[in-house]
Here is the input.
Amino acid sequence: MTESFINGLRKLTGVACGCLLVGALCAQDDFDTYGPQPTGAPEATKQYEANLKAHKGDPDRLVLPGLVADRKACTVEVLAESTGLNEGELAEFLLIGQGSSHGYEALLWSFAKPSDVHRALEFIGLEPGTPHNPILPRLWSDGDRVNLMVQSGDGDAFPIERMILDNETGTTLPEEGFVFAGSIIVPLQEGQSKPRYAADVYDPRSVASVYNEPAAVLDVPRAANKGEVYGNQVVNPEYAARGGELVTIVMTPADPDGQPPVRELVLSLDSVTASNQVACRLLEAEGDVLHAEPSMSAMLERLVVLGKEDAAISVDLAFADTLPVPYIGKVCTLMAVVETMGMVRIKPPAAGELYYRAFVPDKRWFKPEGRPTQPWELRLARKGGALTGELVLHTAVWSDTSTTPTFTRKASALAGPGDMRAILDKDAKERQATGRRSLPAVLLVFAESSLTYGEVVSFVSPALSTHATVYLFVE
Here is the structure.
Protein backbone atom coordinates (compact mmCIF):
# COMPACT_ATOMS: atom_id res chain seq x y z
CA MET A 1 0.00 0.00 0.00
CA THR A 2 1.43 3.41 -0.91
CA GLU A 3 2.05 6.03 1.75
CA SER A 4 -0.63 8.33 0.35
CA PHE A 5 -3.25 5.66 0.93
CA ILE A 6 -1.87 4.85 4.36
CA ASN A 7 -2.05 8.53 5.28
CA GLY A 8 -5.75 8.45 4.52
CA LEU A 9 -6.57 5.62 6.87
CA ARG A 10 -7.72 7.90 9.67
CA LYS A 11 -9.24 11.35 10.00
CA LEU A 12 -7.31 13.06 12.76
CA THR A 13 -8.14 16.49 14.12
CA GLY A 14 -6.87 18.43 17.13
CA VAL A 15 -5.95 16.45 20.21
CA ALA A 16 -7.86 13.39 19.09
CA CYS A 17 -5.67 13.39 16.01
CA GLY A 18 -2.61 13.00 18.20
CA CYS A 19 -4.07 10.08 20.11
CA LEU A 20 -5.00 8.08 17.03
CA LEU A 21 -1.76 8.83 15.25
CA VAL A 22 0.53 7.73 18.04
CA GLY A 23 -1.71 4.74 18.64
CA ALA A 24 -1.17 3.77 15.02
CA LEU A 25 2.59 4.17 15.41
CA CYS A 26 2.83 1.73 18.27
CA ALA A 27 0.09 0.44 20.56
CA GLN A 28 2.00 -0.79 23.60
CA ASP A 29 1.97 -0.79 27.36
CA ASP A 30 3.69 2.22 28.92
CA PHE A 31 6.35 0.02 30.52
CA ASP A 32 6.89 -2.48 27.75
CA THR A 33 10.55 -2.28 26.73
CA TYR A 34 12.61 -4.69 24.70
CA GLY A 35 15.71 -4.74 22.55
CA PRO A 36 19.02 -3.13 23.62
CA GLN A 37 18.84 -0.85 26.65
CA PRO A 38 21.27 1.69 28.15
CA THR A 39 23.52 0.71 31.04
CA GLY A 40 24.36 4.15 32.43
CA ALA A 41 21.30 4.63 34.66
CA PRO A 42 23.29 4.40 37.94
CA GLU A 43 25.69 7.13 36.77
CA ALA A 44 22.72 9.22 35.57
CA THR A 45 21.11 8.95 39.02
CA LYS A 46 24.39 9.91 40.69
CA GLN A 47 24.76 13.01 38.49
CA TYR A 48 21.12 13.99 39.06
CA GLU A 49 21.55 13.89 42.85
CA ALA A 50 24.77 15.89 42.59
CA ASN A 51 23.10 18.51 40.39
CA LEU A 52 20.20 18.85 42.83
CA LYS A 53 22.66 19.68 45.61
CA ALA A 54 24.83 21.96 43.47
CA HIS A 55 21.94 24.09 42.20
CA LYS A 56 19.57 23.98 45.16
CA GLY A 57 17.67 27.25 45.50
CA ASP A 58 18.90 28.63 42.15
CA PRO A 59 15.80 29.99 40.32
CA ASP A 60 17.72 30.21 37.06
CA ARG A 61 18.47 26.52 36.91
CA LEU A 62 16.07 23.65 36.36
CA VAL A 63 17.34 20.26 37.47
CA LEU A 64 15.43 17.19 36.31
CA PRO A 65 16.53 13.56 35.97
CA GLY A 66 19.05 13.47 33.14
CA LEU A 67 19.26 17.22 32.50
CA VAL A 68 20.15 20.68 33.76
CA ALA A 69 18.69 23.82 32.18
CA ASP A 70 20.36 27.20 32.68
CA ARG A 71 18.08 30.15 31.98
CA LYS A 72 20.87 32.76 32.03
CA ALA A 73 23.17 30.81 29.73
CA CYS A 74 20.22 29.64 27.58
CA THR A 75 21.40 26.05 27.62
CA VAL A 76 19.86 22.65 28.28
CA GLU A 77 22.39 19.91 29.00
CA VAL A 78 21.05 16.37 28.55
CA LEU A 79 22.99 13.31 29.66
CA ALA A 80 23.00 10.63 26.94
CA GLU A 81 24.56 7.25 26.23
CA SER A 82 25.82 5.95 22.90
CA THR A 83 23.94 2.93 21.59
CA GLY A 84 27.08 1.70 19.84
CA LEU A 85 25.76 1.61 16.29
CA ASN A 86 28.58 0.74 13.94
CA GLU A 87 29.74 2.89 11.06
CA GLY A 88 27.50 2.57 8.02
CA GLU A 89 24.54 1.19 9.97
CA LEU A 90 21.12 2.71 9.35
CA ALA A 91 20.07 5.41 11.82
CA GLU A 92 16.57 6.85 12.04
CA PHE A 93 16.89 8.56 15.40
CA LEU A 94 19.48 10.87 16.87
CA LEU A 95 18.24 10.87 20.45
CA ILE A 96 15.55 8.67 22.03
CA GLY A 97 14.20 8.15 25.54
CA GLN A 98 15.94 5.44 27.53
CA GLY A 99 12.76 3.31 27.55
CA SER A 100 12.57 3.14 23.75
CA SER A 101 12.85 -0.21 21.99
CA HIS A 102 14.50 1.48 18.98
CA GLY A 103 18.06 1.51 20.26
CA TYR A 104 19.02 -0.68 17.32
CA GLU A 105 18.44 2.27 14.97
CA ALA A 106 19.28 5.26 17.15
CA LEU A 107 22.56 7.00 17.95
CA LEU A 108 21.93 7.99 21.55
CA TRP A 109 19.69 7.26 24.53
CA SER A 110 18.56 10.23 26.62
CA PHE A 111 18.42 9.87 30.40
CA ALA A 112 15.92 12.74 30.43
CA LYS A 113 12.30 12.06 29.53
CA PRO A 114 11.19 13.69 26.26
CA SER A 115 8.58 15.75 28.12
CA ASP A 116 11.29 16.98 30.52
CA VAL A 117 13.40 18.07 27.54
CA HIS A 118 10.33 19.97 26.31
CA ARG A 119 9.86 21.56 29.75
CA ALA A 120 13.54 22.54 29.92
CA LEU A 121 13.49 24.18 26.49
CA GLU A 122 10.52 26.27 27.58
CA PHE A 123 12.36 27.10 30.82
CA ILE A 124 15.19 28.79 28.86
CA GLY A 125 12.66 30.80 26.84
CA LEU A 126 12.02 28.74 23.70
CA GLU A 127 8.51 28.38 22.32
CA PRO A 128 7.13 25.09 21.02
CA GLY A 129 5.07 25.08 17.87
CA THR A 130 2.96 22.40 16.20
CA PRO A 131 4.31 19.06 14.99
CA HIS A 132 4.39 17.71 11.47
CA ASN A 133 1.23 15.66 10.88
CA PRO A 134 0.59 14.25 7.39
CA ILE A 135 -2.92 13.16 8.34
CA LEU A 136 -4.28 16.68 8.85
CA PRO A 137 -2.41 17.34 6.50
CA ARG A 138 0.28 19.54 8.04
CA LEU A 139 3.48 18.80 6.16
CA TRP A 140 5.63 21.33 8.04
CA SER A 141 6.25 21.63 11.75
CA ASP A 142 6.83 25.00 13.35
CA GLY A 143 8.39 26.29 16.54
CA ASP A 144 11.64 27.87 17.69
CA ARG A 145 14.88 26.54 16.25
CA VAL A 146 17.31 24.62 18.50
CA ASN A 147 20.97 23.64 17.98
CA LEU A 148 22.21 20.31 19.36
CA MET A 149 25.89 19.87 20.17
CA VAL A 150 27.44 16.57 21.28
CA GLN A 151 30.02 17.08 24.04
CA SER A 152 32.26 14.15 24.97
CA GLY A 153 33.89 13.57 28.33
CA ASP A 154 37.13 15.20 27.18
CA GLY A 155 35.31 18.41 26.25
CA ASP A 156 35.26 18.07 22.46
CA ALA A 157 31.96 19.27 20.96
CA PHE A 158 30.42 19.07 17.49
CA PRO A 159 26.95 19.47 15.90
CA ILE A 160 24.91 16.28 16.22
CA GLU A 161 24.15 16.41 12.48
CA ARG A 162 27.73 15.32 11.78
CA MET A 163 27.01 11.89 13.21
CA ILE A 164 24.81 11.05 10.21
CA LEU A 165 26.07 10.50 6.67
CA ASP A 166 23.67 10.68 3.74
CA ASN A 167 24.64 7.97 1.26
CA GLU A 168 22.75 9.71 -1.53
CA THR A 169 24.59 13.04 -1.24
CA GLY A 170 27.82 11.83 0.34
CA THR A 171 27.56 14.57 2.96
CA THR A 172 26.47 14.86 6.57
CA LEU A 173 23.09 16.34 7.49
CA PRO A 174 22.70 20.11 6.99
CA GLU A 175 23.67 21.92 10.19
CA GLU A 176 20.43 23.88 10.39
CA GLY A 177 19.34 23.00 13.91
CA PHE A 178 15.98 21.46 14.80
CA VAL A 179 12.43 22.74 15.12
CA PHE A 180 10.99 22.71 18.64
CA ALA A 181 7.64 21.38 17.48
CA GLY A 182 6.80 19.47 20.65
CA SER A 183 5.26 16.04 20.71
CA ILE A 184 1.60 15.19 20.30
CA ILE A 185 -0.42 15.16 23.52
CA VAL A 186 -2.46 12.02 24.11
CA PRO A 187 -5.89 12.89 25.55
CA LEU A 188 -7.22 11.46 28.77
CA GLN A 189 -8.12 7.80 28.78
CA GLU A 190 -10.04 5.82 31.36
CA GLY A 191 -8.23 5.58 34.65
CA GLN A 192 -5.83 8.46 33.95
CA SER A 193 -5.73 11.79 35.76
CA LYS A 194 -3.97 13.86 33.12
CA PRO A 195 -3.07 13.80 29.40
CA ARG A 196 0.20 12.15 28.42
CA TYR A 197 3.10 13.33 26.31
CA ALA A 198 3.24 10.92 23.37
CA ALA A 199 7.03 10.77 23.17
CA ASP A 200 7.12 9.63 26.83
CA VAL A 201 4.84 6.63 26.42
CA TYR A 202 4.83 5.53 22.78
CA ASP A 203 7.70 4.20 20.75
CA PRO A 204 9.97 5.39 19.29
CA ARG A 205 10.04 7.90 22.20
CA SER A 206 11.95 10.27 19.97
CA VAL A 207 13.59 13.43 21.20
CA ALA A 208 15.16 14.08 17.79
CA SER A 209 14.82 12.08 14.57
CA VAL A 210 16.36 12.29 11.11
CA TYR A 211 12.93 12.36 9.46
CA ASN A 212 9.63 14.15 10.09
CA GLU A 213 8.35 12.26 13.15
CA PRO A 214 4.99 13.62 14.44
CA ALA A 215 5.58 12.47 18.02
CA ALA A 216 9.16 13.79 18.33
CA VAL A 217 10.11 16.74 20.51
CA LEU A 218 12.47 18.15 17.86
CA ASP A 219 11.82 17.90 14.12
CA VAL A 220 14.21 18.38 11.21
CA PRO A 221 13.61 21.82 9.60
CA ARG A 222 12.86 20.45 6.14
CA ALA A 223 10.64 17.97 4.35
CA ALA A 224 12.13 14.56 5.20
CA ASN A 225 9.56 11.86 4.61
CA LYS A 226 10.49 8.63 6.36
CA GLY A 227 9.91 6.53 3.25
CA GLU A 228 12.18 8.79 1.20
CA VAL A 229 15.13 9.05 3.59
CA TYR A 230 15.05 5.50 4.94
CA GLY A 231 18.11 3.57 3.89
CA ASN A 232 20.06 6.67 2.90
CA GLN A 233 21.08 7.98 6.31
CA VAL A 234 23.72 5.99 8.17
CA VAL A 235 26.23 6.36 10.98
CA ASN A 236 29.15 8.54 9.92
CA PRO A 237 32.37 6.53 10.43
CA GLU A 238 34.20 9.67 11.53
CA TYR A 239 31.82 10.12 14.46
CA ALA A 240 30.86 6.57 15.40
CA ALA A 241 30.90 6.23 19.21
CA ARG A 242 31.48 3.07 21.21
CA GLY A 243 28.48 1.59 22.99
CA GLY A 244 27.96 2.74 26.58
CA GLU A 245 29.93 5.98 26.21
CA LEU A 246 28.31 8.85 28.12
CA VAL A 247 28.08 12.23 26.41
CA THR A 248 26.25 15.50 27.00
CA ILE A 249 23.85 16.94 24.45
CA VAL A 250 23.97 20.72 24.76
CA MET A 251 20.83 22.40 23.43
CA THR A 252 20.84 26.14 22.68
CA PRO A 253 18.65 28.56 20.72
CA ALA A 254 19.72 28.53 17.07
CA ASP A 255 19.18 32.27 16.88
CA PRO A 256 19.50 34.04 20.27
CA ASP A 257 18.14 37.25 18.73
CA GLY A 258 14.91 35.65 17.59
CA GLN A 259 13.68 33.14 15.05
CA PRO A 260 13.47 33.85 11.31
CA PRO A 261 10.14 35.47 10.48
CA VAL A 262 7.35 33.71 8.61
CA ARG A 263 5.68 35.61 5.78
CA GLU A 264 2.00 34.72 5.56
CA LEU A 265 0.59 34.82 2.01
CA VAL A 266 -2.60 33.82 0.22
CA LEU A 267 -2.70 32.36 -3.28
CA SER A 268 -6.13 33.05 -4.68
CA LEU A 269 -7.48 31.18 -7.71
CA ASP A 270 -10.61 33.17 -8.37
CA SER A 271 -11.51 33.27 -12.07
CA VAL A 272 -10.64 32.37 -15.65
CA THR A 273 -8.95 35.05 -17.77
CA ALA A 274 -9.85 36.06 -21.33
CA SER A 275 -6.96 33.88 -22.55
CA ASN A 276 -8.60 30.86 -20.91
CA GLN A 277 -6.08 30.66 -18.08
CA VAL A 278 -6.74 30.58 -14.37
CA ALA A 279 -6.18 33.92 -12.66
CA CYS A 280 -3.55 33.48 -9.91
CA ARG A 281 -3.18 36.25 -7.38
CA LEU A 282 -0.53 36.13 -4.67
CA LEU A 283 -1.60 38.37 -1.81
CA GLU A 284 -0.26 39.54 1.50
CA ALA A 285 -2.32 38.45 4.49
CA GLU A 286 -3.76 41.98 4.58
CA GLY A 287 -5.01 41.64 0.98
CA ASP A 288 -2.40 43.53 -1.05
CA VAL A 289 -1.68 41.84 -4.42
CA LEU A 290 2.05 41.20 -4.96
CA HIS A 291 2.18 41.07 -8.77
CA ALA A 292 0.37 42.95 -11.53
CA GLU A 293 -0.33 40.18 -14.04
CA PRO A 294 -2.74 37.50 -12.71
CA SER A 295 -0.90 34.55 -14.22
CA MET A 296 0.91 31.44 -13.01
CA SER A 297 4.22 32.65 -14.41
CA ALA A 298 3.97 36.06 -12.72
CA MET A 299 3.01 34.41 -9.45
CA LEU A 300 5.95 31.99 -9.65
CA GLU A 301 8.40 34.79 -10.48
CA ARG A 302 7.23 36.68 -7.42
CA LEU A 303 7.63 33.61 -5.21
CA VAL A 304 11.20 33.16 -6.45
CA VAL A 305 12.02 36.77 -5.50
CA LEU A 306 10.40 36.42 -2.08
CA GLY A 307 12.26 33.16 -1.49
CA LYS A 308 15.56 35.05 -1.55
CA GLU A 309 14.50 37.12 1.45
CA ASP A 310 15.18 36.06 5.03
CA ALA A 311 11.74 34.69 5.82
CA ALA A 312 9.92 31.41 5.48
CA ILE A 313 6.93 31.64 3.14
CA SER A 314 3.65 30.15 4.29
CA VAL A 315 0.89 30.03 1.68
CA ASP A 316 -2.83 29.59 2.18
CA LEU A 317 -4.55 28.44 -1.03
CA ALA A 318 -8.03 29.80 -1.72
CA PHE A 319 -10.17 28.37 -4.53
CA ALA A 320 -13.22 30.29 -5.75
CA ASP A 321 -16.42 28.24 -5.63
CA THR A 322 -17.20 29.26 -9.22
CA LEU A 323 -13.89 28.07 -10.66
CA PRO A 324 -14.19 25.00 -12.96
CA VAL A 325 -12.14 22.15 -11.51
CA PRO A 326 -9.92 21.56 -14.59
CA TYR A 327 -8.22 24.93 -14.02
CA ILE A 328 -7.19 24.12 -10.46
CA GLY A 329 -5.07 21.07 -11.23
CA LYS A 330 -2.34 22.90 -13.18
CA VAL A 331 -1.71 25.41 -10.41
CA CYS A 332 -1.77 22.73 -7.72
CA THR A 333 0.75 20.63 -9.65
CA LEU A 334 3.07 23.64 -9.81
CA MET A 335 2.64 24.35 -6.09
CA ALA A 336 3.39 20.72 -5.24
CA VAL A 337 6.72 21.06 -7.03
CA VAL A 338 7.43 24.40 -5.36
CA GLU A 339 6.67 22.98 -1.92
CA THR A 340 8.79 19.88 -2.54
CA MET A 341 11.70 22.18 -3.39
CA GLY A 342 11.25 23.89 -0.02
CA MET A 343 10.35 27.29 -1.47
CA VAL A 344 7.01 27.50 0.35
CA ARG A 345 4.99 25.78 3.02
CA ILE A 346 1.37 25.14 2.07
CA LYS A 347 -1.07 25.47 4.95
CA PRO A 348 -3.61 22.74 5.75
CA PRO A 349 -7.06 23.43 4.26
CA ALA A 350 -9.83 25.11 6.21
CA ALA A 351 -12.57 22.87 7.58
CA GLY A 352 -14.77 21.55 4.78
CA GLU A 353 -12.26 22.46 2.04
CA LEU A 354 -10.07 20.21 -0.10
CA TYR A 355 -6.33 19.94 0.41
CA TYR A 356 -4.56 21.19 -2.70
CA ARG A 357 -2.88 17.84 -3.37
CA ALA A 358 -6.33 16.39 -3.96
CA PHE A 359 -5.87 17.89 -7.43
CA VAL A 360 -2.54 16.11 -7.97
CA PRO A 361 -3.58 12.44 -7.85
CA ASP A 362 -1.49 9.49 -8.93
CA LYS A 363 -2.69 8.79 -12.47
CA ARG A 364 -2.30 5.06 -11.89
CA TRP A 365 -5.26 5.19 -9.52
CA PHE A 366 -7.64 6.23 -12.28
CA LYS A 367 -8.53 2.58 -12.88
CA PRO A 368 -9.00 -0.17 -10.28
CA GLU A 369 -6.16 -2.18 -11.84
CA GLY A 370 -3.63 0.51 -10.92
CA ARG A 371 -4.50 0.84 -7.24
CA PRO A 372 -2.90 -0.94 -4.29
CA THR A 373 -6.32 -1.13 -2.63
CA GLN A 374 -9.91 -0.22 -3.50
CA PRO A 375 -11.43 2.80 -1.71
CA TRP A 376 -14.84 4.29 -2.44
CA GLU A 377 -15.28 6.20 -5.70
CA LEU A 378 -17.59 9.19 -6.00
CA ARG A 379 -18.66 9.97 -9.56
CA LEU A 380 -20.19 13.40 -10.08
CA ALA A 381 -22.08 14.59 -13.15
CA ARG A 382 -24.62 17.19 -14.16
CA LYS A 383 -27.87 15.73 -15.46
CA GLY A 384 -30.71 17.96 -16.57
CA GLY A 385 -29.08 20.92 -14.85
CA ALA A 386 -28.87 19.11 -11.49
CA LEU A 387 -25.73 17.76 -9.83
CA THR A 388 -25.99 14.03 -9.20
CA GLY A 389 -23.62 11.47 -7.82
CA GLU A 390 -22.89 7.78 -7.83
CA LEU A 391 -20.97 5.96 -5.11
CA VAL A 392 -18.98 3.05 -6.51
CA LEU A 393 -16.99 0.26 -4.88
CA HIS A 394 -14.79 -2.13 -6.81
CA THR A 395 -13.88 -5.49 -5.30
CA ALA A 396 -11.00 -7.64 -6.54
CA VAL A 397 -11.86 -11.21 -7.48
CA TRP A 398 -8.94 -13.64 -7.74
CA SER A 399 -8.92 -16.94 -9.59
CA ASP A 400 -6.57 -19.91 -9.56
CA THR A 401 -5.83 -19.50 -13.25
CA SER A 402 -4.68 -15.86 -13.32
CA THR A 403 -2.12 -13.73 -11.52
CA THR A 404 -4.25 -10.60 -11.96
CA PRO A 405 -7.72 -10.06 -10.52
CA THR A 406 -10.97 -9.10 -12.16
CA PHE A 407 -13.22 -6.56 -10.45
CA THR A 408 -16.86 -6.49 -9.50
CA ARG A 409 -18.59 -3.12 -9.43
CA LYS A 410 -21.21 -2.08 -6.87
CA ALA A 411 -22.87 1.28 -7.54
CA SER A 412 -25.42 3.34 -5.61
CA ALA A 413 -27.16 6.38 -7.07
CA LEU A 414 -27.00 9.53 -4.92
CA ALA A 415 -29.56 12.30 -5.04
CA GLY A 416 -27.45 14.42 -2.71
CA PRO A 417 -24.56 14.48 -0.21
CA GLY A 418 -26.76 13.12 2.56
CA ASP A 419 -27.28 9.87 0.65
CA MET A 420 -23.52 9.33 0.43
CA ARG A 421 -23.04 9.90 4.16
CA ALA A 422 -25.75 7.35 4.94
CA ILE A 423 -24.20 4.69 2.67
CA LEU A 424 -20.71 5.21 4.07
CA ASP A 425 -21.97 4.90 7.65
CA LYS A 426 -24.07 1.83 6.90
CA ASP A 427 -21.19 0.03 5.18
CA ALA A 428 -18.79 0.84 8.03
CA LYS A 429 -21.21 -0.54 10.63
CA GLU A 430 -21.83 -3.70 8.64
CA ARG A 431 -18.11 -4.31 8.25
CA GLN A 432 -17.53 -3.83 11.95
CA ALA A 433 -20.43 -6.11 12.89
CA THR A 434 -19.26 -8.90 10.59
CA GLY A 435 -15.56 -8.58 11.41
CA ARG A 436 -14.56 -7.51 7.92
CA ARG A 437 -11.66 -5.17 7.31
CA SER A 438 -12.49 -1.47 7.09
CA LEU A 439 -12.09 0.24 3.75
CA PRO A 440 -9.36 2.88 3.33
CA ALA A 441 -10.47 6.30 4.56
CA VAL A 442 -9.84 7.63 1.06
CA LEU A 443 -12.30 8.99 -1.48
CA LEU A 444 -11.51 9.02 -5.21
CA VAL A 445 -13.67 11.65 -6.90
CA PHE A 446 -14.36 11.59 -10.64
CA ALA A 447 -15.87 14.88 -11.78
CA GLU A 448 -17.08 16.12 -15.15
CA SER A 449 -14.97 18.99 -16.47
CA SER A 450 -17.91 21.40 -16.36
CA LEU A 451 -18.28 21.15 -12.58
CA THR A 452 -17.02 23.90 -10.31
CA TYR A 453 -14.99 23.67 -7.14
CA GLY A 454 -17.99 24.71 -5.08
CA GLU A 455 -20.16 21.98 -6.57
CA VAL A 456 -17.57 19.30 -5.85
CA VAL A 457 -16.99 20.49 -2.28
CA SER A 458 -20.71 20.63 -1.55
CA PHE A 459 -20.95 16.93 -2.35
CA VAL A 460 -17.65 15.84 -0.78
CA SER A 461 -17.56 17.83 2.48
CA PRO A 462 -20.01 15.59 4.42
CA ALA A 463 -17.61 12.66 3.84
CA LEU A 464 -14.51 14.46 5.17
CA SER A 465 -15.23 13.53 8.79
CA THR A 466 -14.32 9.91 7.97
CA HIS A 467 -12.62 10.19 4.56
CA ALA A 468 -10.07 12.93 5.06
CA THR A 469 -7.94 12.06 2.03
CA VAL A 470 -9.52 12.97 -1.29
CA TYR A 471 -8.10 12.69 -4.79
CA LEU A 472 -9.91 14.24 -7.72
CA PHE A 473 -9.84 13.10 -11.34
CA VAL A 474 -11.35 15.33 -14.02
CA GLU A 475 -13.18 13.48 -16.78
